[in-house]
Structure formats: C-alpha cells, structure tokens
Amino acid sequence: MRPRRPALLSVTAAVLLVTGCGAESVAAPASSAPSSEPTATAAETTTAPPTPTQQELPGGGTQVFPGHRLVGFSGAPSSPALGPMTGDLAAATEQLRQQSAAYGTDRPVLPIVELIATVVQSVPGPNGDYSVAADDATVQQYLDAARAAGGILLLGIQPGSGDFLPAVQYYEKWLTEPDVGVALDPEWAIEPGEVPGDVFGSTTGAELDGVSAYLDGLVTAGDLPQKVMLYHQLHADIVSGQEALVDRPGVAVVKSVDGIGAAADKIGTYQRVMAGTPPFVHAGFKLFYEEDTRSGPLMTPQEVLALVPQPEYVLYE
C-alpha cells in the first residue's frame, strides 16, 4: 500500500487535473514467430542469417551516462500549462536546441522530449483509475519530434489509482524502440478509492524497481541501448524505501527533483530530496518557466551546473 499523504498540491499539479488528454486504445503489439532456416541441399546453398547488432542511442553508443547530459522539454497536446513541448512541435524543438546549447560544455547534450502520456483526471477514466492514456497518433507525433531533435522520447506516466508497471506496459510497442524511455510521476500515484487532488500520491523503491526490471528485460530481449527510467520527486516522502532500487545494466535511472519557486528554495529542496539517493541513480533538476519566475529570475544553466551533485538531466516545464 502507498502511504497516504495530506491534501497538498503544487501549482503545476493543480493544473494537471483540468488539462487532461483524450484517450484511445493502443493496439497490443503483434507477435511473430521466428521463421525456420531452410535446409541446404546439393542443389542449393543457404546463407546464415546476419548476426544481430545492438541498436544504438541517437548519435551513437549504447550507454546514456557519462557520455551525455540530458536536457528536455515536457508537454502534452493542447496543454501549454504542462510545458513548452506543445502546439507547434517544430518550433518547440528549435527552442529546446537553443536552451540546451549552454549545457553542452563538458559533454554532448542528448535532447529529451517528455510527453506526459498518461495523465491523471479528476474523474475516473476508462479503467476507473483516474487516468487517461495517449493514443498511438499522439505518441508517434512526439516521437517524430524527438527524432527530429536527435534525441529520445520519455513517456510520462501519472497512473492515478492504478500501478506503474501496467501503465508502463501499456506502451510496450513504443518501448521496444531504441529511443523511447519512461518518466514516472509518483505525485499522482494514489490508492484505489482515493481521488487525485484529495491526497498526495507516493510510491516505493520496490514499485519503481519493478518497472526497472521490466525495462531491463526489454533491453536484453531487443538488443536495445540503455533505457532512461526517470522518476519525478517533489519532496522526500514521495518515494519511500528507495534502497530497493537495483542497478540494472539496461536502465539508466534518474531522479528529477521538482521543487518550485525562488532559486534558494529550489536548491534547498534539491539537497533534501537527493540526500540518501542510491549512488547509481543520476541527479535531475526541473525548472519552471512560469512558476519559478514569479519568485525571481529563472536559474541560469551555469547556476544549475553548479549544484552538488551536478544534474545530469535538466527538464524545463
């Protein structure tokens, strides 16, 4: 059971309840049985099938870190409040390139398009779990934008009263692509019978590790490059028992700290939430173009890179 939390919502969280995405069913991935090799005879010769080669990340390589720094924009269709990756995706992609440039001083930037794919609702969705999943056309549109940027797509998951693993498995046809990972949002993971907005969601390290194990299996089965598995965390109580997370070769785990407000407040939240993080979990930091600037100027890339630990993923909303 996830621990219950008091009714407490961030500014962005409150917006999510009124800016959902439409849902359509995603077709289950088609399975195919391997064809048998033809038998060589005196009259014919056969050619052995080529040895599979491991697929690579955009730009080459199979490991996310330490060869890259990730810089991303979040968004969802027709929902500007969820981030700049909405509306004209080509223009947003160009803005992402410009924003990312200052972060490429010590290693190449791998752009991230974070589509908030499964979105919480204030009423029960089709499965009764207060969430609605994106349709194929939407995921393809955002994957095309990520590929145009030379980056990867992260599918954001707000499971409502459902569990993370089945919500992630819903997108398996996309997760078998070499440039698609996940971004989990425990703030919106509530217990059955609860309503988003009435309580603050949470999860456990064990639940997150279940997703990690699943992704690692996809990597092994498909000879894929590492998958990014990011989880957002607004305060320390959102994830309990993080020591249950296991370091898996096929998964690059990132904790993105989502504090809102003035720079001093954001830095304090970052230090508190990152304390005690398993050493293999990479640091992430989130900036809000609107909410943060109500309390002062937006932190510069130089200020972000001066944080300890230094963020390896920087997300703008």
Automatic annotation (TrEMBL):
Xref: PROSITE patterns: PROKAR_LIPOPROTEIN
Sorted UniProt keywords: Signal
Highest taxon, organism lineage: Bacteria
Signal peptide: 1-23
Key word Signal present: yes
Region of interest (Disordered), ranges: 26-70
Composition-biased stretches (Low complexity): 26-48
Name the record gives this protein: Lipoprotein
Lineage: Bacteria, Bacillati, Actinomycetota, Actinomycetes, Geodermatophilales
